[in-house]
Specification:
The complex is a heterodimer. By secondary structure, chain A is an alpha/beta fold. Chain A has one domain: P-loop containing nucleotide triphosphate hydrolases (Rossmann fold, 3-Layer(aba) Sandwich), CATH 3.40.50.300. Chain A has a six-stranded mixed sheet with strand order 2-3-1-4-5-6, with helices on both faces. The longest helix of chain A has 22 residues. Chain A is globular. Chain B contains 51 helices and 15 strands. In chain B, the strands form four sheets. Chain B has a nine-stranded antiparallel sheet. About 37% of the residues of chain B have low confidence. Classes of the chains: A alpha/beta, B alpha+beta. Chains A and B meet through strand 2, helix 3 and helix 5 of A and helix 26, helix 28, helix 32, helix 40 and helix 46 of B. Chain A: This is Ras-related protein Rab-7a.
Chain lengths: 206, 1156
């Protein structure tokens, strides 16, 4: 039988300022886009209930400030994260290049159990804009070198691919969770033999 | 007519929106809570529609604009309406069935829905609508109404409209099909109700006073007491019944509203004329007091069993009991020898509840001890149970050793004489306990002493006696109702009354031996001993309590006394300052433009704020920009100096900005060239737009190297690659060369000052002021003007270019002119022949083409290409220095010209540019230069960030039009240029914005911003040490001023850091409040610095926490919930109230410190 236990997934959105973290979060959770968002100060989060592999999961999505100086206060938010969404702006190559440092910083601060396989997702946002600066192949390549991180090209404005990207992070985070249960001391044998153990493929739509 | 139609549409839209909302809620949450805010707003929308063009006579005599009268009219002719009407009237006139107390105690469960609706006393307006929705009748009623609209409505009414009316009615079909619940399930908590819903709920439940007195020590619960009276004749709709049954059983368990104190199964209750039934007895603690519930086993054992038994079991609901302990005055306990016990509860009206029989074992006792614990601290059992130490069965409580209840027969004449019975040791089996309220643990406080305490003459220490019928009543926090005078009809009550008198004398344990109790002298001694022990314990506890309090005060004094000034400035001395600084008051204070009485200004601002028209004048004083006592002339002088200074600084960074743009443009060009080179080997000209596509083709993974040059385009200071930095240094080299050459205005500066940076400064110093006088006079002046014109016209586009990085021609638009100028001027410098070429071309051409020319010419020669770049950098550098008259002459037209030329020639030019020339610098050496690469990088990064945030700053506020955003940007850039070590940190824009709104003057806003930043800059990371101090202070303050909340926060996660306050402190609440409130909060903060505390922000934060403390506590919010709550509450706070509370908190702390 499927576990009736509610699952809370904590997902952090990281990326340079202005890449559209807040917009992505709001597009995903509230299905709306506004061009009125201000620069995020501190942190905010929204929750959304989603079905992942027949389990009801509450995603707690944390939106953070983009300026790296605010990272010092991110520690409290990163702690206990189950997934991380790295966002860059496809029209701004430098936002893509800082993904490295965002990822490293996150792994240092959140110090997850299994950094190699921590469920990241990379989002190249703003594909609705024309002046593309980072090619899909380049982003894809980076993701590949970092352990096949799923890569999505989205537009928070046009609601392109947003759902899929977050669904992927939820799915991967759930898979991790199940894995953790596997090796924990008190496994629930019934639960484990069942669902949630499907191999995770590369979720990239490209 | 048209407006009527519009109105109809508006009403209909509102209903549609609300219906959508509630249906969504039903989908996302699987059910809708009866108290959901969306339901309330739906009712409001429906009500509005119903009221639309309602015939006057249908409105009836109801004074409030309610449709209740309409319902009553309908109920005469339409059956469903009649049902709803009946339900509503039942609800509105409760307690008519009070007569039979036993009936009352039987909590018939079928009234659940009904009760819940009546539990919303503050919104009776929509009561019938709610009821109709809950009972799925509303759609029918509306349908009927639409069909018979002519009777009740004017022709133009929404309801009467042939199209809109039926639409309206059918809209409500959906909501009427939903199931509503009042159940709190785990689901409910998981779905995180939004902040406004929480606030609304809180308002509904706690009435008005909770918000008015946030500091009240006793918090309001969410539990609304159910009215048990009007239970019986509820519709027996099996579905509702079933649902409420489940709810009921659910409510017996521990849940958010009720704490389960005691539970025992198989407790027998003997209803009237029936045989005893076994059931589950539970004792619950709600915020209203204790509730005893008993439910027959038949109902408990799986309420969801097959429906075959449904009808059978339903009769048991008759017997289920819910007893509110505050209605109970006496508890009669009968203990059988075999350790079984019976409890009979007697209400204040003297009515006995059915006896409750406890099974064997100390269940009765444990029930009583739970009860006693539950009653504390606001009530207690009289006599109290005794703590038994060691001996006996348990370590817990035992019955007090009193005389047997049998004695009551002899003392039933309500005397205190009594005590005829012998002390039969453990055999004492019958007791009567009285439930009394007490205010304080200390029972002997004067207020507890009833002056009319009867008959206890022999007892010098009067027991607090609250049973005197005639005693005027104090408001007890936990209400104890007066008992009625004993009625002869209710024997037990009389007995109990008498007995209680007697017992209380007894149990006060003091001098009961005065009268006939000598026989029990030893027994009394024993009591005395115990009493002594208790006294000691109490005293020691009191002592430790006092000690803790002292320590606590010490903490306050050592840690917090620095937060507030010790001198209390009164609000109404010499005159009431709550009106704030009004125009009249300002006129009075301002003699001939000189304001001397700073104290009065501060006091008025602190207590009442500044009148909005005055803010522009007063704020500079408050911020310390103007000195009190300064003359208008002095201030004007200051303004002029500041203005000049501002201009000067601005021209500096504008110059740097131009360099940066040029640099960016080059790299853009370089990238483009590189890309085209790579892909087509220079044969096919690339159309700009295409490159976004071609990008994907060209850039392969191994091309890390190749893609590096992009770095220069962006400001990311991280990961600079060698080629680019080399290029920059080479650029500096050439700039240096230029500055040493004797050219234009530059050599003038060079003559005086060696450090290259100062060159620019010096120039601008001269030229800033001269700008006004004569454009021709100072080059810099004209430069500055021309420059800003160009920049302003282009910024919006530049931003998009910044994003796009590569392809649009706008960014360099201002630069071609510069470059051309430079090329012309530096022709003599002739570092390279290519420049000469460029220069010659530049006479009529744009820079891009000249660049292209240079490049194409030197395509094979790497050195040449590099030098060309140097020249470009040099060009812009010199422009900053203050440039050519000809440029000033007609920048606009030239720019246009250049741009056109650029667009046309660009593609081919870039095409021909060789990749090598960009990637391998030839002259990497050289140090020095006007601006170091680091500086440029840093400025570029900051500018980029500023641009990003300025664009996003308060876009929805009317003031921030593009040109005002431009001002904001200028101020921001100027500040950052002056404070490059701090740099731009997100949030600074938010601090400038309100100042700019008030002053609408760049240089004044800038000066005041600098003043403001003296206090604020230490909040910003990475130097944000002040933030931690704020958090630590918050922690101490909450601990001192609201310990309950402090405890809660400690229990719920990591509160060592008050992250939810982060934005508050960083931005002085700018994001938390709407603009008008920001103004008043800010000026209060500034005034407070001179009045009560330089940490006024702390107290505002504290006030915000206080306002919502009940919501935080009631909803058991943890660390993340609070962050979310306050984020959602942003711009919805009541600033006036918050400020008032903040001032009160300061006063509280001041007095606390004063008390020593």
């Amino acid at each position: 039988m499927a576990s009736r236990k509610k699952v809370l997934l904590k997902v952090i959105i990281l990326g340079d300022s202005g890449v559209g973290k807040t917009s992505l979060m709001n597009q995903y959770v509230a299905k709306k886009f506004s061009n009125q968002y201000k620069a995020t100060i501190g942190a905010d989060f929204l929750t959304k209930e989603v079905m992942v592999d027949d389990r009801l999961v509450t995603m707690q999505i944390w939106d953070t400030a983009g300026q790296e100086r605010f990272q010092s206060l991110g520690v409290a938010f990163y702690r206990g994260a189950d997934g991380c969404v790295l966002v860059f702006d496809v029209t701004m190559p430098n936002t893509f290049r800082s993904l490295d440092s965002w990822r490293d910083e996150f792994l240092i601060q959140a110090s997850p159990r299994d950094p190699e396989n921590f469920p990241f997702v990379v989002i190249g946002n703003k594909v609705d804009l024309e002046n593309r600066g980072v090619s899909g192949r380049r982003a894809q390549g980076w993701c590949h070198t970092k352990g096949d991180i799923p890569y999505f090209e989205t537009s928070a404005k046009e609601a392109i691919n947003v759902e899929q990207a977050f669904q992927a992070v939820a799915k991967n985070a759930m898979a991790q969770e199940t894995d953790v249960e596997l090796c924990s001391e008190f496994p629930d044998p019934i639960k484990l033999s069942g669902d949630n153990n499907k191999p995770q493929g590369n979720n990239c739509p490209c | 007519m048209a407006s009527e139609a519009e109105e109809r549409q508006r009403l209909l839209r509102a209903v549609k929106k609300e219906v959508k909302q509630i249906m969504e809620e039903a989908v996302t949450r699987k059910f809708v809570h009866e108290e959901s805010s969306s339901l309330t707003s739906l009712c409001a929308a429906v009500e509005a529609c119903l009221l639309h063009c309602l015939k006057k006579r249908a409105l009836g005599l109801f004074k409030y604009g309610s449709t209740m009268a309409l319902l009553q009219k309908l109920s005469k002719v339409f059956e469903p309406a009649a049902e709803v009407s009946k339900l509503v009237s039942d609800m509105e006139s409760p307690s008519s069935t009070e007569l039979s107390g036993s009936r009352k105690s039987l909590d018939n469960n079928k009234n659940q829905t009904k009760k819940s609706t009546s539990s919303i006393p503050s919104s009776p307006k929509f009561l019938w609508l709610r009821v109709a929705i809950f009972h799925k009748k509303l759609a029918k009623i509306l349908d009927y109404l639409v069909q018979n609209s002519s009777k009740y409505y004017e022709v133009e009414a929404l309801i009467a409209d042939p199209v809109d009316g039926p639409i309206f009615a059918s809209l409500l079909v959906g909501p009427c099909a939903l199931d509503y619940t009042k159940m709190k399930t785990s689901d409910h908590f998981w779905t995180d109700p939004p902040a406004d819903e929480l606030v609304q709920r809180h308002r509904i439940h706690s009435g008005n006073h909770a918000f008015a007195s946030p500091g009240s020590p006793k918090r309001q619960g969410l539990q609304v007491r159910r009215d048990a009276s009007n239970a019986q004749e509820e519709a027996r709709d099996p579905k509702t019944f079933h649902m409420s049954a489940r709810e009921y059983v659910e409510s017996l368990h521990q849940n958010s509203k009720l704490t389960l104190l005691y539970g025992k199964n198989n407790v027998l209750v003997q209803p009237e004329n029936k045989e005893a039934l076994a059931g589950y007895l539970s004792l619950h603690q709600s915020s209203e007091g204790l509730i005893i519930m008993w439910t027959p086993n038949q109902l408990m054992n799986g309420c969801c069993e097959d429906s075959r038994e449904e009808t059978d079991r339903s009769q048991y609901w008759e017997f289920a009991m819910t007893i509110y302990l505050d209605e109970v005055v006496y508890i009669h306990c009968h203990q059988q020898p075999d350790c079984r016990g019976t409890v009979v509860l007697v209400g204040q009206d003297g009515v006995q509840r059915p006896p409750i029989h406890f099974p064997k074992g100390g269940h009765l006792l444990s029930f009583l001890s739970c009860l006693e614990t539950g009653l504390q601290p606001n009530g207690q059992l009289d006599p109290p149970l005794w703590s038994q130490k060691g001996k006996g069965k348990n370590t817990g409580k035992v019955f007090p050793k009193l005389r047997r209840k049998g004695s009551r027969l002899s003392s039933s004449t309500s005397s205190s004489s009594s005590s005829t019975t012998s002390m039969d040791e453990e055999e004492a089996t019958d007791y009567v306990f009285r439930i009394i309220a007490s205010f304080k643990p200390d029972m002997l406080t004067p207020e507890m002493l009833d002056p009319k305490a009867p008959r206890s003459s022999h007892s010098p220490r009067n027991l607090p006696n609250s049973t005197t019928p005639a005693a005027p009543e104090e408001r007890a926090p936990w209400p104890v109702r007066r008992q009625l005078p004993p009625s002869p009809l209710v024997r037990s009550s009389v007995q109990a009354y008498a007995l209680s008198q007697e017992e209380q004398n007894e149990s006060c344990l003091v001098q009961a031996s005065n009268d006939a109790t000598h026989r029990y002298y030893d027994y009394i001694n024993h009591i005395k001993q115990l009493c002594d022990i208790m006294t000691k314990q109490i005293i020691s506890r009191a002592f430790y309590g006092w000690l803790a309090h002292c320590r606590h005060l010490k903490t306050v004094r050592t840690h917090l006394s620095g937060l507030v000034y010790h001198v209390i400035v009164a609000e109404d001395d010499p005159i009431d300052a709550s009106d704030g600084l009004t125009l009249q008051a300002w006129d009075k204070l301002c003699c001939d433009g000189v304001v001397k009485d700073s104290g009065e200004v501060y006091r008025r601002v602190y207590y009442g704020g500044v009148c909005h028209e005055l803010r522009r004048q007063v704020w500079p004083y408050l911020l310390g920009h103007y000195k009190f006592g300064s003359t208008p002339e002095e201030r004007e002088g200051l303004e002029a100096a500041m203005g000049a200074d501002y201009e000067k600084v601005m021209s500096e960074w504008l110059a740097v900005e131009a360099i940066i743009r040029q640099r960016d443009k080059e790299t853009v060009a370089a990238n483009l060239a590189k890309l085209s080179q790579e892909s087509t080997d220079g044969h096919i000209p690339l159309v700009r737009k295409d490159s976004s596509l071609s990008n994907e083709v060209f850039v392969s993974f191994e091309s890390e190297e190749l893609s590096r040059p992009e770095t220069v385009v962006e400001e990311s200071s991280t990961a600079r690659t060698t080629p680019s930095s080399d290029r920059k240094t080479s650029m500096e080299l050439s700039i240096t060369a230029a500055s040493t050459s004797s050219m234009g205005g530059i050599d003038r500066a060079v003559g005086t000052e060696t450090p290259p940076v100062a060159i620019v400064k010096k120039d601008s110093v001269h030229r800033g002021p001269s700008q006004q006088e004569s454009p021709d006079d100072g080059l810099g002046g004209s430069f500055a003007r021309g420059e800003s014109v160009v920049i302003e016209s282009e910024r919006p586009k530049t931003d998009s270019v910044g994003d796009s990085g590569i392809l649009t021609p706008m960014t360099p638009r201002s630069l071609p002119a510069d470059v051309t100028d430079r090329i012309q001027m530096t022709a003599k410098l002739s570092v390279d022949s290519a420049v000469e070429d460029g220069g010659s071309v530049g006479g009529g051409l744009d820079s891009a083409s000249s660049t292209g020319g240079g490049k194409s010419r030197t395509g094979s020669a790497t050195d040449d290409g590099e030098q060309l770049h140097q020249q470009q950098g040099l060009g812009s550098g010199k422009i900053e220095g203050g440039l050519t008259v000809e440029k000033c002459g007609g920048p606009g037209s030239r720019v246009q010209e250049y741009e056109d030329a650029l667009v046309s020639s660009d593609a081919s030019d870039h095409l021909s540019a060789s990749k090598e020339s960009l990637l391998s610098p030839a002259s990497p050496a050289s140090n020095g230069g006007i601006y170091s690469a680091e500086l440029l990088d840093s400025v570029a990064l900051n500018l980029h960030r500023i641009d990003k945030d300025v664009q996003r700053c308060d876009r929805n506020y009317h003031y921030f039009t593009p040109e005002n955003l431009e001002k904001l940007r200028n101020i921001m850039c100027t500040y950052v240029w002056q404070n490059l070590d701090i740099g731009y940190v997100q949030g600074m824009c938010d601090l400038v914005a309100p100042l700019l709104v008030i002053f609408n003057d760049e240089s004044l806003a800038y000066s005041c911003f600098c003043q403001l930043m003296k206090r604020m800059s230490c909040n910003f990371p990475p130097h944000g040490g002040a933030m931690d101090t704020h958090f630590a202070n918050m922690r101490s303050l909450i601990q001192i001023l609201d310990s309950e909340l402090f405890e809660h926060m400690h229990l719920h996660g990591d509160y060592t850091h008050f992250y939810f306050c982060y934005r508050w402190f960083l931005l002085d609440f700018k994001r938390e409040l709407v603009y008008d409130d920001v103004f008043s909060v800010w000026e209060t903060i500034w005034a407070a610095k001179h009045m009560t505390s330089s940490h006024f922000v702390l107290f505002i934060a504290l006030a915000l926490v206080q306002v919502y403390r009940d919501i935080i506590l009631d909803n058991n919010m943890d660390f993340t919930d609070i962050i979310k709550f306050f984020n959602e509450m942003a711009e919805r706070h009541n600033a006036k109230q918050v400020l008032k509370i903040a001032r009160e908190l300061i006063l509280r702390l001041q007095t606390l410190i004063d008390n020593k």
